[in-house]
Write a structure and sequence with these properties.
CATH architecture of the largest domain in chain A: 3-Layer(aba) Sandwich
Number of strands of chain A: 13
Oligomer: homodimer
Helix content of chain A: 40-55%
Order of helices and strands of chain A: HEHHEHEHEEHEHEHEEHHHEEHEEH
Strand order of the largest sheet of chain A: 2-9-8-7-6-3-4-5
Structural class of chain A: alpha/beta
Number of helices of chain A: 13
Distance between the termini of chain A: 29 Å
Largest sheet of chain A: 8 strands, mixed
Largest interface: A-B, 54 and 54 residues
Shape of chain A: globular
Chain lengths: 433, 433
């Protein structure tokens, strides 16, 4: 089919008439579909039910270091859980603390602690006039919500195919002492599925921050979340790169099993330098006597090791891959060559990112809603919920069935076409006016 | 035996010579005993192993509201867990949020949130010159550590047999706007085992704070932790008292199953007014997508209801009661009538509180250590670790066996006698000088 931008006004009008007809038809169907939920589907969770058998009333509840996991103590987690989470992050177990069920909570607490008590002896951020964070966008809305909550000014950093625009990152970090951190999802990023290139990771490790309490918040949420056996992204391990670059304390890395075992009932971990760990432990010990070691033991016994986890994730991939492919196939078939949108084809993670024509995202999301298809709110992937181009839309294919995803994507492409045609017609009017 | 204060100098000297001999004998035994650990013993934890069978790979994982507990969502907890924890606190489930494994973490987060974001719209405490907390003492060291961590000034409130000195509490709360809270363990208090009287609870509920963001931190840690079937303390339910007194928002109540199921792997909850709950949820949603609902379901299925929990706690009582009695029996036998110490005889909770002669606690703890018996550090039960009278010592009988506790208490009373005699001799010298 002809690219929309090549169409005459008459052709566009005809196209719009046809799309309006299709829209009316679709509306009559009264669909109820949801492409917004970045969460596992029940079949994935069923794969993890063995976790509940990993411990029962006959189990030995001692951890590797001889600790009764049912009693108080061991602030930083049991050894076998540290090893498991360290392997997921490709770091040493010495650098790891295993927490409760949520890496988001760890990140929130790290920010909160920096606000009230500073970082490794620095001035608490609440005592400063201005604190800023760099926010590669499109990105994860819950990251942005945390920094917004603490009154931290957020600066948008455009994403490229190899990660955040590092020229800009280097400029801000080296020149502005108020810049205290950057949010990163370095592997299969939310929502684009981009994995940072080796060069990007090395440039992160070699940053020369104006603020000595600047930290990279490295949210490695999708470390083992591959969609394919034969095509997989790899991410350079950042802790050792930072160490090599003489910047050992510059990064906090986070991960969890929320999208591996059970969402909200998994285990979460942080990896960082020895100095940062000591700093964290000092305040952590005031907040808790210890995290849920029984659940840590359950996870360690169930997965055994990284290999066990990888095998488990192959089963997840088998379930969600067809859904990604269903979306991508409809997008390619219906929008290929039209020049009214671009989308990512990720090899892992939980999302597909769609880039509509400028100024069209909100309207597409609204039109989809009118047809009964829920999408993540346009703008959600940007700080303050404001996408400057109003073009990014996040598609979450995991929760519905592949059939539902195909059906929802049919609706989506219809709305993309309709909104794009209307936009082009408006632009044409504006030009002739 | 004669009270030490009635003894002549000569009698005291003779007494000291005998005690020195006993001390030397005891030292040769090379004991290794610990009376400091306020944690369950393994047999108590064994009683809870059925918890691990409450869910297995064949279980229905849906909560009462039809929520898949294995997936994201339901910020405030599943209905059955809310009911269970509400019943423990004797409040309505509507007033409850169920969190993760630690009530200490809830309290820390409530303080932290108040510091950074205020309380129900009040000025964040970090923006104030001075914030103060009332600290009934002796009390729980981890409470005091949190307020100290946030630079909150702590004011000691003496404990009485019916709870904190309410005249003082009322005075501070009504007169000083900087007073933002008070730490309370209202039932079987740590370390004295005191339960606040109905009058005390009503006076709390009727407080007229100068600060509108003043809150009572009501740590109901030992709500169902009775030692006896026939002799039990009861605590007036404070939320409804506050409501009746026109003070619905003045209290946050906390509890957990840490000393009911597994320590550190239980569930914890908060109860408060609807307005406070809304305030909390607003920030809670930034920190987490939801707590561990699988563990909530496991607890609800295992205990079923309050009755089930009470029956479970009878088994705990059967295990730890003999240990309390072993301590109390040695104390009575060896120190009764000597006038050199007083101690509490709690009907529940985890501790016995010993009051030595003024200026003797540190020395008693040091001497016990010399004989291989570890006690909680003297002063730990007071803000900043400073017991103004240097007289309170916390005894934790639950972890060792009854035999070990009796043996440790033998050492303890020996040290109490020796230090007391030395003190009386010093005082006599000082008087004649």
């Amino acid at each position: 089919m002809k690219a929309y931008s090549m169409m005459t006004k008459k052709e566009l009008m005809a196209q719009k008439a046809e799309l309006d007809r299709q829209f009316a038809d679709a509306k009559r169907k009264g669909l109820q579909l949801d492409m917004s939920r970045g969460k596992p589907e029940p079949a994935q969770l069923d794969m993890g039910m063995g976790l509940l058998d990993a411990l029962n009333s006959d189990s030995d509840m001692m951890s590797m270091e001889g600790m009764d996991t049912r009693n108080y103590g061991l602030l930083t987690g049991i050894t076998e859980a540290k090893h498991l989470m360290a392997d997921v992050m490709d770091v040493s177990a010495e650098n790891v603390i295993v927490f409760g069920n949520s890496s988001l909570s760890i990140m929130y607490d790290m920010i909160s602690r920096s606000v009230t008590h500073g970082v490794l002896g620095s001035t608490p951020w609440c005592k400063l006039d201005k604190v800023k964070f760099l926010c590669p966008a499109p990105g994860y809305d819950r990251h942005f919500a945390i920094t917004q909550h603490f009154g931290i000014e957020m600066i948008v950093i455009p994403m490229t195919a190899t990660g955040p625009d590092m020229d800009l990152v280097e400029k801000y970090v080296s020149e502005d002492e108020a810049v205290k951190g950057i949010w990163c999802v370095p592997k299969y990023s939310n929502p684009q599925g981009i994995t940072y290139s080796d060069e990007t990771v090395r440039r992160f490790a070699a940053l020369k921050p104006a603020a000595k309490d600047f930290r990279i918040y490295w949210d490695n949420a999708y470390a083992v979340h591959h969609l394919y056996e034969d095509k997989q992204d790899t991410l350079l391990e950042i802790l050792s790169e930072c160490e090599k670059a003489g910047n050992p304390d510059i990064v906090y890395e986070f991960c969890s099993t929320s999208k591996i075992s059970f969402s909200g009932a998994g285990i979460a971990a942080m990896a960082t330098s020895a100095a940062n760990l000591e700093d964290v432990k000092k305040t952590l010990t005031l907040r808790t006597i210890g995290y849920d070691k029984v659940n840590q033991l359950r996870h360690a016994r169930f997965f055994k090791n990284l290999e066990g986890m990888r095998n488990h994730m192959k089963k997840h991939a088998a379930i969600i891959r067809p859904k990604f492919e269903a979306v991508l196939s409809v997008l390619e078939e219906e929008l290929g060559g039209l020049g009214i949108g671009e989308w990512t084809k990720p090899l892992g993670g939980y999302f597909i990112s769609f880039e509509a024509m400028e100024g069209c995202a909100k309207e597409i999301v609204a039109k989809c809603k009118e047809l009964g298809v829920v999408l993540t709110g346009a703008g959600a992937t940007f700080p303050y919920g404001k996408d400057p181009k109003d073009s990014n839309i996040r598609i979450a294919p995991t929760y519905p069935t592949a059939e539902e995803m195909a059906e929802a994507t049919d609706v989506f492409v219809l709305c993309v076409k309709l909104v794009s045609v209307e936009k082009l017609l408006q632009d044409a009017v504006a030009e002739t006016a």
